[in-house]
């Protein structure tokens, strides 16, 4: 029996060429090479709002995929997430042409001090009227760490210790500095803000010392909706404590069901409602008027995939130089722990397939590590409902094969089918992104740890 639970959808893009479909920028209908033009992003935002997408999730990396063959040449040749522009500047113009669409901003806390970053978050939350989410990442590319003066990327678990304190500072600034009624805008007395209701945070920690006040008045959400995409045990623990939405990339139902259950269990252990976290899986859908039309479209797309670009991506993601292996080399005979882990992941996704280096490149060539669904709107809707029912996931981050065509097909063909089945909204809920996603208040609610930092409103005092 298909699930009647409402499916949540984000579009997945990045301020670069091709994103997770290396080589398809050369397809004559692909627009991703226009990533540097506002028209590209404004058109996409309008399209997604027409399809009632919950949000646009914007990925980012600060660094180059330079693991393949020990250099970045392949990534540069194939536009494998380089060139890549900053994601933050995209949001304001897209917000101006939409009313409801949310925006998930990926920003690494490894590369920017929390004091100026908190101001950027508040600014965006004000300008979008509360439609911002922050995808908290600690970054994984050595090239990015080196270019800001670090000798190497910090140890994995240590990055999360740093992240825990980073979040404390951000919570103190966004939640604990300004009382909700600190801004008076009293023209008669010529008092804009009451200084007695604005408090220095006086943070002194292992990594940061931040004595002063937050520079921004409270925004609609105060703290943006918090996304997290860590897949490790430490990453999932961080997500269970802090995240409101979690982005995972499981290639099979078996793995996704296990991951979702693990995150929900950890949330309970952290004292939170397990369903207070929305979990999105990476997914790519190729939709056609019929199954045959969709299959033909998929075959056309695959002919544009860059083998070199796909290997640059997967080498960067895993830290393993796949350039040292032949395309027909079977992964299970390559003896490193990391590759054995990858083999286990993909053999679970498709146990009947022999996983060669070429097969791995083919898999990630359209949409990255996530699964691919090809078919008519009815076929794809059946599959998506099956994933919800079988894994307890809340929704999907849709990667594209080519853009905006992949998203146009979803909006024109798939969304009406999902709406007809009663599993997708026909109208947006009112309010901020948090209110739309959770039918709750605009700001963090207890027992989320961030809510505990919110300063209580003090008794009004006479201001002179």
From TrEMBL:
SUPFAM superfamilies: Bacterial luciferase-like. NCBIfam families: FMN_nitrolo. It comes from the Bacteria. Residues 32-388 form the Luciferase-like domain. One of its GO terms (molecular function) is oxidoreductase activity. Belongs to the NtaA/SnaA/DszA monooxygenase family. PANTHER family: ALKANESULFONATE MONOOXYGENASE-RELATED (PTHR30011), C2H2 FINGER DOMAIN TRANSCRIPTION FACTOR (EUROFUNG)-RELATED (PTHR30011:SF16). Keywords: Flavoprotein, FMN, Monooxygenase, Oxidoreductase. The keyword Oxidoreductase applies. It is an enzyme of class 1 (oxidoreductase). Its EC number is 1.-.-.-. Residues 444-464 are annotated as: Disordered. Signal peptide: none annotated. This is LLM class flavin-dependent oxidoreductase. InterPro entries: Diverse_substr_monoxygenases, Luciferase-like_dom, Luciferase-like_sf, NTA_MOA. It holds the Pfam family Bac_luciferase. The keyword Oxidoreductase applies.
């Amino acid at each position: 029996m298909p699930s009647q639970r409402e499916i949540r959808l984000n579009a997945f893009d990045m301020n670069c060429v091709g994103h997770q479909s290396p080589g398809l920028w050369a397809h004559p209908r692909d627009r991703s090479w226009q990533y540097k033009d506002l028209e590209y992003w404004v058109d996409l935002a309008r399209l997604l709002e027409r399809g009632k997408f919950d949000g646009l999730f914007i990925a980012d990396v600060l660094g180059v995929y330079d693991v393949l063959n020990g250099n970045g040449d392949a990534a540069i040749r194939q536009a494998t997430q380089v060139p890549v522009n900053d994601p933050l500047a995209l949001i304001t113009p897209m917000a101006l042409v939409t009313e409801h669409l949310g925006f998930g901003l990926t920003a690494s806390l490894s590369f920017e001090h929390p004091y100026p970053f908190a101001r950027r978050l508040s600014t965006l939350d004000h300008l979008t009227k509360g439609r911002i989410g922050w995808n908290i990442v600690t970054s994984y590319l050595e090239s990015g760490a080196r270019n800001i003066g670090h000798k190497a990327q910090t140890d994995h678990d240590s990055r999360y210790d740093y992240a825990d304190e980073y979040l404390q500072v951000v919570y103190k600034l966004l939640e604990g500095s300004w009382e909700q009624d600190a801004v008076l805008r009293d023209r008669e007395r010529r008092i804009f803000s009451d200084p007695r209701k604005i408090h220095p945070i006086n943070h002194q920690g292992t990594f940061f010392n931040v004595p002063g006040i937050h520079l921004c008045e409270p925004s609609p959400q105060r703290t943006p909706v918090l996304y997290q995409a860590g897949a490790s045990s430490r990453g999932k623990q961080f997500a269970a404590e802090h995240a409101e939405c979690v982005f995972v990339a499981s290639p099979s139902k078996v793995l996704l069901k296990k991951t979702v259950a693990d995150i929900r269990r950890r949330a309970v252990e952290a004292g939170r409602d397990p369903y207070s976290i929305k979990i999105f899986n990476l997914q790519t859908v190729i939709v056609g008027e019929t199954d045959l039309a969709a299959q033909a479209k998929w075959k056309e797309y695959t002919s544009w995939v860059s083998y070199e670009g796909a290997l640059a991506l997967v080498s960067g993601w895993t830290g393993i130089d796949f350039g040292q292996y032949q395309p027909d080399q079977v992964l299970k005979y390559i003896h490193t722990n990391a590759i054995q882990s990858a083999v286990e992941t993909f053999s679970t996704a498709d146990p009947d397939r022999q996983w060669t280096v070429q097969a791995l490149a083919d898999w990630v060539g359209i949409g990255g590590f996530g699964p691919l669904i090809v078919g008519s709107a009815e076929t794809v809707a059946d599959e998506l409902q099956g994933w919800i029912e079988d894994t307890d996931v809340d929704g999907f981050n849709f990667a594209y094969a080519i853009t905006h065509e992949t998203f146009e097909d979803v909006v024109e063909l798939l969304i009406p089918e999902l709406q007809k089945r009663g599993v997708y909204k026909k109208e947006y809920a009112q309010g901020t992104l948090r209110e739309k996603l959770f039918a709750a208040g605009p700001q963090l609610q207890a027992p989320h740890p961030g809510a505990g930092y919110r300063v209580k409103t003090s008794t009004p005092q006479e201001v002179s």
